[in-house]
Structures are given as C-alpha cells and as structure tokens.
Amino acid sequence: xxxxxSTLLFLGRRGxxxxxxxxxxxxxxxxxxxxxxxxxxxxxxxxxxxxxxALLKLPxxxxxxxVGGWLGTAVEVGGRPTLTLRPL
Length: 88
Fold this sequence. Notes:
The protein is 39% helix and 25% strand. By secondary structure, the protein is α+β, with helices and mostly antiparallel strands. It has a single domain, classed as Arc Repressor Mutant, subunit A (Orthogonal Bundle). The strands form two sheets. A two-stranded antiparallel ribbon has the order 1-2. Strand 1 and strand 2 form a beta hairpin.
C-alpha cells in the first residue's frame, strides 16, 4: 500500500499502481496473490465487503491486471486444466 492508500503491485523491478481500492476489491487482489481462484471466489470476496454494486468494478480491475500482464487465466473441463494463458 502506498502513502495515499493506493494498492501497489511489485514483481522484481516491475510495478503497477491500482489506485485506492474498495475493501472488497482489495480482498480480491489479496486472494489473487495468495492462490489460484475462480471468478466465483472473487465475486464472494467483493460481495462480503462491498455488496452487489461493487461487483461492477471487478471486471474492470481484472481487465487492468490482464492487460498489464499481471493475471493469467486457466480453463478447466471436468476439474482438469485444459488451457492456461500466462502473461509474458
């Protein structure tokens, strides 16, 4: 967290500021840094702290993370991974 309460991501010398996040979005980011999770896991994290209205902000955050190269995506069929996309 930055001095202005913004959420900062760092990996080596690379970094990105996500700005000041709601408690639910911050919980979703913490969840993403802790383990692989489903979109349902992220929705529940946001709902628990922010309520339904904040769910509209989650896709925007996930898109920023994907475009910035911070988030990969895995597709499972029958509980088995079939496709994994990782940022370069």
